From TrEMBL:
<dbReference type="InterPro" id="IPR036866">
    <property type="entry name" value="RibonucZ/Hydroxyglut_hydro"/>
</dbReference>
<comment type="subunit">
    <text>Monomer.</text>
</comment>
<protein>
    <recommendedName>
        <fullName>Hydroxyacylglutathione hydrolase</fullName>
        <ecNumber>3.1.2.6</ecNumber>
    </recommendedName>
</protein>
<keyword id="KW-0479">Metal-binding</keyword>
<feature type="binding site">
    <location>
        <position position="114"/>
    </location>
    <ligand>
        <name>Zn(2+) 1</name>
    </ligand>
</feature>
<comment type="function">
    <text>Thiolesterase that catalyzes the hydrolysis of S-D-lactoyl-glutathione to form glutathione and D-lactic acid.</text>
</comment>
<dbReference type="GO" id="GO:0004416">
    <property type="term" value="F:hydroxyacylglutathione hydrolase activity"/>
</dbReference>
<comment type="similarity">
    <text>Belongs to the metallo-beta-lactamase superfamily. Glyoxalase II family.</text>
</comment>
<feature type="binding site">
    <location>
        <position position="55"/>
    </location>
    <ligand>
        <name>Zn(2+) 1</name>
    </ligand>
</feature>
<dbReference type="Pfam" id="PF16123">
    <property type="entry name" value="HAGH_C"/>
</dbReference>
<feature type="domain" description="Metallo-beta-lactamase">
    <location>
        <begin position="12"/>
        <end position="171"/>
    </location>
</feature>
<keyword id="KW-0378">Hydrolase</keyword>
<feature type="binding site">
    <location>
        <position position="133"/>
    </location>
    <ligand>
        <name>Zn(2+) 2</name>
    </ligand>
</feature>
<dbReference type="InterPro" id="IPR035680">
    <property type="entry name" value="Clx_II_MBL"/>
</dbReference>
<dbReference type="InterPro" id="IPR001279">
    <property type="entry name" value="Metallo-B-lactamas"/>
</dbReference>
<feature type="binding site">
    <location>
        <position position="133"/>
    </location>
    <ligand>
        <name>Zn(2+) 1</name>
    </ligand>
</feature>
<dbReference type="GO" id="GO:0019243">
    <property type="term" value="P:methylglyoxal catabolic process to D-lactate via S-lactoyl-glutathione"/>
</dbReference>
Length: 259
């Protein structure tokens, strides 16, 4: 019954709209811009009922104030330790809550790394993960605030979700991420095949998301750092003799930052 649709914002952001078609209710994820959301709601004849925020970065939050002005009864869900001050319903790790307006429950997964306040929203009922800038298709978020250890742990949490879980991240970075992924693991046939699919999608301006946990475990080097062969293509200036999966992850992230 429920639907998820992308609302394009800026150059490559996706604001995810979670829709209850019968109730004509909508919840949006990380509205960095208000106008695209307003246009979408008008076109689909939907009522905005709530906003969920994954972290405080401006391109995920700047539209909130304008939307609240238009819809003053909005509940704004987000991390309890966030620097963003617009949150009215703070959330903590492992907390479960229900959006009654769309009849959907989420469990919160704390995923520090990209930022310290980052959380992900997992809807087991629908097999949906809204993961902001923690996990991308073929990649992961830059470490603006957290440490490699934190991000590695955060991604390992997400790896344990069911393989059929749909992954809704918030940027169209897939094709560029796969360029790096193929440099890191050039013999990965699943990755080569996926790259062909994504290239065709982007040539037609088709959204490459959602991905899935199973697919990411097969093609995303940042989820595969525990595999021994992942260290062999890392340039020596980034590797520093990696041994553990954390060492490999740290080297991959350092390499990606300069790729």
């Amino acid at each position: 019954m429920l639907q998820v649709k992308p609302i394009l914002a800026f150059d490559d952001n996706y604001i995810w709209a979670i829709i209850h078609p019968e109730k004509k209710q909508c919840v949006v994820v990380d509205p960095g811009q208000a106008e695209p959301v307003k246009q979408f709601l008008a076109a689909e004849q939907l009522q905005l009922s709530a906003i969920i925020i994954t972290h405080h970065h401006w391109d995920h939050t700047n539209g909130v104030a304008s939307l609240v002005t238009e819809y003053p009864d909005l509940v704004i869900y987000g991390p309890s330790d966030s620097p963003f001050k617009g949150i009215t319903q703070p959330l903590v790790d492992q907390q479960t809550f229900t959006l009654k307006c769309i009849e959907l429950s989420f469990t919160i997964i704390a995923t520090p790394g990209h930022t310290l306040d980052h959380i992900c929203y997992y809807a087991e009922q629908q097999n949906w993960l809204f993961c902001g800038d923690t996990l991308f298709s073929g990649g992961c978020g830059r470490l603006f605030e957290g440490t490699p250890e934190q991000m590695h742990l955060s991604l390992n949490k997400l790896k344990t979700l069911p393989s059929h879980t749909h992954v809704y991240c918030t940027h169209e970075y897939t094709l560029s991420n796969l360029t790096f992924a193929q440099a890191a693991e050039p013999d990965n046939q699943a990755l080569i095949s996926y790259n062909h699919t994504v290239t065709e999608q982007r040539n037609l301006n088709i959204c490459t998301l959602p991905s899935s946990i199973g697919l990411e475990c097969a093609i995303n080097p940042f989820l595969r750092a525990d595999l021994p062969h992942l260290s062999q293509y890392i340039p020596s200036e980034y590797a520093k003799a990696p041994q553990s999966s954390l060492d490999v992850f740290t080297a991959l992230r350092r390499w990606k930052d300069h790729f």
